[in-house]
Design brief:
This protein is of the alpha+beta class. Helices cover 36% and strands 18% of the residues. Helix 6 links the parallel strand 6 and strand 7.
C-alpha cells in the first residue's frame, strides 16, 4: 500500500523463493538452498509489520495524549487565549519541533502576551504518559515474543508451553572448540596418526567409517578436517557441501558398505549392508588411498580383504560406551592402505561411448548407478563422449555384449595434484587413461584430448603429449555470467552518475 521498495523487494524474494522451493526439481540446484531466502524474507516482513503496527499505535497514543495549549490551566502555566488580540499562533517549520510561533504579520507592534511573557516561542504540551507508556508496552511485547523460546517460563505465565530453544546449548557446544570436548585427546591423536601415515605412505584420499557417536568430537563431520590437520596431504572423501558434487551419491553408497551405522544421507540410493570387500572395490574405482575403521565388525572384514593392508592404529581410547561400538568401554582406530587405487591410472580396455545417456540430472545418475553396482562392467569405462574410434553402445547394454578392445601397456608417473590442477606423465601417446577426480565442465586438458565424462563421474583423457595437465578454467557459461555482471555494474554506475549530475544541477538552480 505504501509502495515501499524495500518491503516490495522482501515480498518478491520471499514469494519467488517459496515457489521455486516447491517447483524446482532436485537436480543441479538443490532446492533446499532456496528455502532460507523464503524464510528470511518472511521473518523480515514480520519485523516490518510489527514496526508498522507499533508506529500506528504510537501515533494513535500521541493523538489522544496531545491537548490544545489552551486546554490546560495549571497555576503558573502558560495558556493560549481563545481570541488572542495580536493574531493567531501557528507552528513555524523553521522553529524547533513542538513550538508555536506567532505570525509577525499579525502582530500589532507588541510581541508580549499579557503578563509580559513573549509569544514568539510557546512550547506545545506533549502527552507525558505516552512518552513513558509506549516504550514500556513495546518492551513487554518484545519480551513476550523473544523470551519464551529462550527460557522455561512458570506454568502460570503466557506461552509457558513453548519449548526452550536449543540454540544456546548448540552455540555453546559449537563454540567451545574441539579442545573443549572430552574426546579431544582421541581426535587429536587420530589426526596426528593420519599425518604420519601421509608422510610415510604418501598423500591421498581417506574414507573414514561413519558413526553417529563421532559427534563426541564436536560434530559427526569433524573428520572432514583431515586436510587441515595433515597440511593438505590426506583428503577426506566426505565434504561439508554434500550436494556440490555429482560424485556424492557414490560416496554414500561406499559409506553404507564401509560403516556399521551409515548415515545414508541421500534418499533413493541402493544402499546395502556392511560389506567391506565391495566397498573397497568401490574405493579403488574412486581412487581412495586409505580406509579408517573404528568398529570391530568393519575391522574384522578389513583384515580378511587382500586389497587392504593394516598400516597404523590409534588407541585404545576410553570411550565409556559412547564410541563407534555401542556399549564398548574402549575404541581403537585402524588405518588401512587401499591397493591399486592411484588417482590417475591406465586402462585395460578401450572405453566405449554410451548412447542414450541424459547429459545431466537423474537420468545420468540412473545409468551410472547401473554401472556402479555391476562389477562385470567395471573393466570397461563408459563415457558420455569420446573419439570416433571408440565403440558406441547403449549405456544399459549387458556386460557380456560390451565390446572389449585390449589396450597396450602404459605407465603413469609423477602425478601431482594441486588446488585447481592435476598433472602427470605417460609412457605412451594415444592410449586413454582414467583420472579419478570428479568431472565438471570447467576441467580442461593440455597435452591430451578430453576430458570426457565417464561413469560414475570421473574423467578419461587421451594423451597427445607425454606430460598432461588438467586445469580448472572457465566455460562459456562462466564468461557469459561475468559479462552480464560487468555490464550490470556499468549500467548501475551510469545511473548513479546521471542521478548525481541531476542533483548537482538542481542545487545549482536553487543556489541561484
Amino acid at each position: 500500500a505504501r509502495r515501499d521498495r524495500f518491503i516490495l523487494s522482501l515480498l518478491t524474494i520471499s514469494i519467488v523463493s517459496a515457489i521455486a522451493f516447491v517447483v524446482d526439481p532436485v537436480t543441479k540446484l538443490y532446492n533446499a538452498r532456496l528455502l532460507p531466502f523464503a524464510v528470511l524474507g518472511e521473518y523480515l516482513l514480520a519485523g516490518v509489520g510489527f514496526a508498522a503496527l507499533a508506529s500506528a499505535f504510537i501515533a494513535g497514543w500521541r493523538l489522544v495524549g496531545d491537548r490544545p495549549a489552551g486546554s490546560r490551566h495549571p497555576a503558573g502555566d502558560l495558556h493560549q487565549d481563545p481570541a488572542p488580540p495580536t493574531g493567531d499562533l501557528h507552528q513555524d517549520p523553521a522553529s524547533p519541533a513542538g513550538y508555536l510561533h506567532q505570525d509577525p504579520a499579525l502582530q500589532e507592534g507588541s510581541s508580549e502576551r499579557p503578563g509580559g511573557m513573549s509569544t514568539a516561542l510557546i512550547k506545545a504540551p506533549r502527552g507525558a504518559a505516552g512518552a513513558v507508556t509506549v516504550p514500556l508496552v513495546a518492551a513487554v511485547a518484545a519480551l513476550l515474543v523473544v523470551l519464551p523460546p529462550l527460557v522455561r517460563l512458570p506454568s502460570w505465565m503466557p506461552f509457558s508451553n513453548v519449548a526452550p530453544s536449543f540454540v544456546p546449548e548448540w552455540v555453546h557446544w559449537n563454540y567451545s572448540g574441539y579442545q573443549g570436548k572430552s574426546a579431544w585427546p582421541e581426535y587429536h591423536a587420530l589426526m596426528e596418526t593420519m599425518a604420519q601415515v601421509g608422510d610415510t605412505y604418501g598423500c591421498g584420499r581417506a574414507m573414514w567409517e561413519y558413526s553417529p557417536s563421532e559427534n563426541r568430537f564436536g560434530t559427526t563431520m569433524s573428520l572432514m578436517l583431515l586436510p587441515y590437520w595433515t597440511s593438505g596431504c590426506v583428503d577426506s572423501m566426505e565434504g561439508l557441501l554434500f550436494e556440490s558434487s555429482a560424485t556424492t551419491p557414490y560416496h554414500f553408497i561406499n559409506q553404507a558398505e564401509l560403516s556399521l551405522e551409515p548415515s545414508e544421507a541421500m534418499v533413493g540410493l541402493p544402499y546395502g549392508p556392511l560389506d567391506v570387500a565391495e566397498g573397497v572395490r568401490h574405493l579403488q574405482i574412486l581412487g581412495v588411498r586409505y580406509y579408517m575403521a573404528c568398529t570391530t565388525a568393519a575391522q574384522q572384514q578389513a583384515s580378511a580383504d587382500p586389497a587392504l593392508s593394516l598400516i597404523a592404529t590409534s588407541g585404545p581410547w576410553e570411550v565409556h560406551g559412547q564410541g563407534c561400538v555401542p556399549g564398548s568401554p574402549t575404541e581403537t582406530w585402524k588405518i588401512y592402505l587401499v591397493h591399486n587405487s592411484s588417482e590417475v591410472a591406465p586402462l585395460a580396455y578401450q572405453p566405449v561411448v554410451g548412447t542414450g545417456i541424459p547429459s545431466s540430472g537423474t537420468g545420468w545418475l540412473h545409468d551410472a548407478l547401473s554401472w556402479y553396482d555391476n562389477p562385470a562392467k567395471w573393466d570397461v569405462m563408459i563415457a558420455a563422449k569420446g573419439p570416433a574410434s571408440w565403440h558406441r553402445v547403449p549405456a544399459t547394454e549387458a556386460a557380456s555384449l560390451i565390446p572389449r578392445k585390449r589396450l597396450p601397456a602404459l605407465k603413469v608417473s609423477d602425478v601431482v595434484e594441486k588446488t585447481s590442477s592435476i598433472s602427470f606423465d605417460v609412457s605412451r601417446l594415444g592410449v586413454p587413461v582414467v583420472v579419478r577426480t570428479s568431472y565438471f565442465p570447467n576441467w580442461h586438458a593440455r597435452g591430451a584430448e578430453g576430458p570426457y565424462r565417464a561413469f560414475p563421474n570421473l574423467m578419461v583423457v587421451v594423451p597427445t603429449s607425454h606430460h598432461v595437465v588438467l586445469y580448472y578454467g572457465e566455460t562459456p557459461v562462466n564468461v557469459a555470467g561475468l559479462a552480464i555482471t560487468g555490464i550490470s555494474l556499468v549500467v548501475v554506475g551510469l545511473f548513479l552518475f546521471t542521478r548525481l549530475g541531476r542533483r548537482q544541477k538542481v542545487r545549482a538552480a536553487i543556489s541561484k
